[in-house]
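Risk mitigation, structural track. In case the binding assays with fe (ii) ion fail to produce interpretable data, a predicted complex structure has been prepared as a fallback.
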Amino acid sequence: MDKIAMPTKVLSASAWVAIERPHRWGGLIGCIQDDGNAERGFILGYEGEHFSFGLSTSGADDGDGRLTYLRGGTPFVPGRWHHVAATFDGSRMRLYVDGQLDAESTDQSGQVIYDPAAPFVIGSYRDSNEDYVLDGRLLSVRLEQEAWTAKAVRSAFQKQAALTKFEPWTDTVFGFLVEPYLTWPTQKAMSVLFETTLPSTASIRVRRDSDPEESAVEFPLVDSNSLHECRLTGLDPDQKYFYRVVAHSNDEMSVESPLLSFRTAASPGKAFTFVVIGDTQTQGDVAKRVSDLAWMHRPNLVVHAGDLVDTGTSKRDWTDVFFPSMQPLIGRVPLMPVLGNHEQDARHYYDYMSLPEPERWYSFRFGDAEFFMIDGNRSLADQSAQLSWLKGALSASRAKWRFAVLHQPPYTSDSNDYGDTTMGSSLRGDPNVRNIIGLLERFGVDICFSGHVHDYERTFPIREEEVRAYEDGGVIYVTAAGGGGHLEDFDPTNTWFGHKKARYHHLVYVAIHGDHLEFQAIDQHGKLFDVLALEKRRRGKSRR
Ligand SMILES: [Fe+2]
Ligand SMILES: [Fe+2]
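Fallback model:
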């Protein structure tokens, strides 16, 4: 459509719509551009389970346009017909749902401004870098260069109000939206989580591998939710268990997982292995290759260094990219992550993870190791709550091996995240997380794992801003951010601490047995490109 025909002074838009699966953003009718450079146009659409009306006008223009998203207060019912209408009379935006005023704003005034390149679209929220297609049905979409009155909107609704009497209908098939996966392993407990496409009740049957099927213990999940979280307790240490999830929808459809298995956390003195993966993010196919490679190793534990997804607030990034790419690994091996910046501290992270309190940071024991899981997005300044916790947790630790895990690297030879190294200097690491270095050295942390910079790096052991032998209390910093995000590069000149570097998608594999630690870095195709062995006994008394 020619942009000249788009309404400018006043406008009204409406649609009859039945949305089947809500998205973070959705569009019914509009002509929009919304990115860092421009906010122009209008859109009648939805955000999650609420309708919304986005508009940019001359009165609110800050130079490159500014959009107001007026969000309705009434959630829509998936699969049910709703009438939604947006009006703008030159000074007031109004949003109506089923003939009733649902929200209004005077934030915008004057003429509607458009981006000349923006397409006019029905049935999607689409601009130059987004395209969220409607999953649902649309009927009688209208756009007019006039501002309808409340009465006119009500009468438009009433003409076809019979549509709202239809039973909500979707073609959503009952099944697992997210297959069962494991988190938070201890010697006596394990968390199982899964999500079904529709609300369900469920149960999990659990038994030791050597016990007969009849002896399985059943953990019931009686609340009708889509996302279920179950803490399996009363388990034995370092023991293999079988488990199976069965879920029932409200209308008596059911879905059953295959017979799955896990092993509880190793007791002190027992050997175990773990993998570290970071920044799985955008490329699901790469993340799947890395995760399948991890699975091939049959580790006891998966540690994730953050940036699990690309957009933490986007549910589809979790359900359609992260979880499918991490199976079958996390259906059998528990996952323990830290928050990356791309998680955006979104609710989805806390909903999908079952972790020790307060979840955003925590520590846990596994065999002879203790892991200190840090949120590098939150303050680690001297008086911060997190740094106080870290100090207390490290000083109380009796574990032989100590690992810190956080998304942002304290030391990195990266090319441009902390200064442009082709043209100038770099901070060589994240200024906020730098404040943990003294604690890691003081409390004898062996390896600090990070993500964020999409490549692989293992530093020389570092103590007091100098390269010092590991045996002398030096801490080794490993960036393992090759899980799927687009690769980054290194400073063209080596840093004072820079040791092994690799620009591959990869994982890190670690095996611990008593005083011995074996460490390998392996690329997505299985090629071993870095190895390290540490002997605990030879490490001198660190300054505890
Ligand atoms: Fe990342
Ligand atoms: Fe990141």
